[in-house]
């Protein structure tokens, strides 16, 4: 029997996992729904303030009195690699579970998200081996030594659009640098992170990795305002990020914020157009378009605009929409009905503001259950329309035509967000020039959606604070300490007259 069928027959119970075991189901029950057919596949029991407090206390005790913080690099590496292996051993189950929970096509969860979740642990196992400090010398034999110490108990809050991969990145980074943590996934998609914690908690000392489940404004808010956590690493929407920042300001805690985006994808006339078309489609519609780094604000230079836009619309209209567990599916359901409605509302408002609907803009006609919308493309007359400014977070691309390089750079930068920019050109010099002009944390030239964990990922402007990646994650998950050592006795200036 398939995993989906088993979950429908007997919905999974999801509770917090504290100190190495799931707690008894007690909190408010919340149904978790398969977005492809609206069947209940799990019931989550929400953690309240007291349960969050228990999770933080266990994590705090494991940090202060346990051995993880002081474990050798080799010991931590061994544990991280064991988690990596465990994810790969359970990859088929995790991929199917992720697709049932999120609606992301299985080809993507299996081909990308689960391998990436595993790789995060291997990457950080390797990173800590190379992650040294600094030593400076001064006159009179003073040695200044910079080391990086674990920051403490980390609150790790993940979004619903790529729960396993994005949350695994946070867990791997926090653990690698010697911290303990309390993880809170989105209440909409809690299944794979809960399964991950269940699978791997025996590979770590007790209390190092803890999980709480529940809605953001209840469980999430209790976690970020808890006085005994030391930092929060958050991935999610800008509005939520603002609320979390306010909560952290109270305790002078460090935030790391990976927030929303509205990334420009600029197609110059000198690009390889077939290649740019494939890249722009993937960059807009992968993960059902529910991607922070979606390059779905597409600018096309006039000389190639007509044919590019026509082909983009045709290909978008022909995409295979359907059950994420079917191999051929390219676009699965959106996460819930509200998100579907929201996207359709953008299509309507775009049309009212003067944009032309090229394809889509309605519910998927062939599906009578589930949250399916047709992938949508609109031609926008200018950058001021809401569809060009606000993050839609669904399979929805806007296309605009431009003439000059300076003009398109100004338009690309005319955004509250600054996560990623995409540039399509055969001219390396142009690629570098435009990259340096774009106000975004990452620029991808002639490729969609590549992450290299050795580089930091994060945003300018309202797209976030801090960077996730080798150095960025170390900055986020450690305190920097300077130890100043005098070698030999120094000559001090006299302070007391009678000394
Ligand atoms: P949300 O901001 O709605 O939620 C993110 C997480 O925060 C969820 O776990 C949510 O819980 C929780 N949360 C909500 N309110 C609070 C609160 N007051 N205190 C603490 N936690 C809270 O984002 P989405 O889940 O809707 O994810 C989509 C957003 O994430 C998009 O804007 C997208 O761009 C962004 N994102 C950014 C990425 C990046 O790397 N920059 C990557 C991926 C996504 P719950 O859902 O249970 O309410």
Your description of this structure?
With 499 residues, the chain is α/β, with parallel strands linked by helices. It has 16 helices and 23 strands. Helix 6 links the parallel strand 8 and strand 9. The longest helix is centred in the first third of the chain and has 25 residues. It is globular, with a radius of gyration of 24 Å. The N and C termini lie far apart (86 Å). The model has no long low-confidence stretch (mean pLDDT 96). Bound molecules: NADPH dihydro-nicotinamide-adenine-dinucleotide phosphate. The site of NADPH dihydro-nicotinamide-adenine-dinucleotide phosphate (NDP) has 32 residues, from helix 8 and helix 9.
Shape: globular
Tell me the Rg in angstroms. Answer: 24 Å
Helical content stands at: 40-55%
Small ligands present: NADPH dihydro-nicotinamide-adenine-dinucleotide phosphate
CATH class type of the largest domain: Alpha Beta
């Amino acid at each position: 029997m398939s995993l989906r069928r088993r979950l429908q027959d007997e919905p999974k119970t999801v509770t917090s996992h504290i100190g190495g075991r799931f707690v008894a189901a007690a909190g408010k029950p919340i149904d978790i729904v398969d977005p492809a057919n609206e069947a209940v596949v799990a019931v989550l029991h929400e953690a309240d303030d007291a349960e969050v407090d228990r999770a933080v206390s266990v994590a705090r005790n494991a940090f202060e009195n346990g051995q993880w913080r002081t474990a050798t690099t080799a010991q931590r590496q061994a544990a991280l690699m064991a988690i990596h292996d465990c994810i790969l051993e359970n990859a088929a189950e995790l991929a199917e579970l992720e697709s049932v929970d999120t609606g992301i096509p299985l080809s993507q969860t299996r081909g990308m998200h689960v391998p990436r979740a595993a790789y995060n642990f291997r990457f950080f196992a390797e990173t800590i081996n190379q992650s040294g400090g600094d030593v400076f010398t001064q006159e009179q034999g003073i040695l200044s030594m910079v080391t990086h110490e674990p920051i403490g108990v980390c609150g790790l809050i993940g979004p619903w659009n790529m729960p396993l991969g994005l949350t695994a990145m946070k867990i791997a980074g926090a653990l690698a640098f010697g911290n303990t943590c309390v993880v809170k996934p989105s209440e909409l998609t809690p299944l794979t992170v809960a399964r991950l914690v269940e699978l791997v908690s025996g590979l770590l000392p007790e209390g190092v990795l803890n999980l709480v489940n529940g809605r953001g404004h209840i469980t999430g808010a209790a976690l970020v305002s808890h006085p005994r956590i030391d930092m929060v690493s958050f991935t999610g929407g800008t509005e939520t990020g603002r609320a979390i920042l306010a909560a952290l300001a109270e305790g002078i805690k460090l935030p790391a914020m990976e927030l929303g985006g509205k990334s420009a994808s600029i197609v110059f006339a000198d690009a390889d157009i077939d290649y740019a078309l494939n890249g722009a489609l993937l960059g807009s519609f992968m993960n059902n378009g529910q991607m922070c780094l979606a390059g779905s604000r597409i600018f096309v230079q006039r000389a190639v605009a007509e044919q590019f836009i026509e082909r983009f619309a045709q290909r978008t209209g022909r995409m295979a929409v359907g059950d994420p567990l079917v191999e051929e599916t390219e676009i699965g359901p959106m996460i819930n009905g509200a998100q579907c409605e929201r996207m359709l509302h953008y299509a309507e408002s775009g049309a009212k503001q003067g944009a032309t609907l090229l394809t889509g803009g309605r519910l998927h006609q062939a599906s009578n259950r589930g949250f399916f919308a047709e992938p949508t493309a609109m031609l926008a007359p200018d950058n001021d329309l809401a569809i060009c400014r606000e993050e839609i977070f669904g399979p929805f691309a806007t296309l605009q035509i431009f003439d000059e390089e300076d003009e398109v750079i100004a338009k690309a930068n005319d955004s509250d967000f600054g996560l990623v920019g995409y540039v399509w050109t055969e001219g390396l010099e142009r690629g570098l020039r435009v990259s340096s002009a774009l106000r975004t944390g990452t620029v991808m030239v002639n490729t969609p959606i590549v992450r290299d964990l050795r580089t930091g990922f994060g945003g300018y402007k309202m797209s976030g604070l801090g960077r996730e990646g080798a150095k960025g994650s170390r900055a986020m998950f450690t305190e920097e300490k300077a130890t100043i050592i005098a070698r030999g006795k120094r000559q001090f200036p006299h302070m007391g007259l009678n000394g």
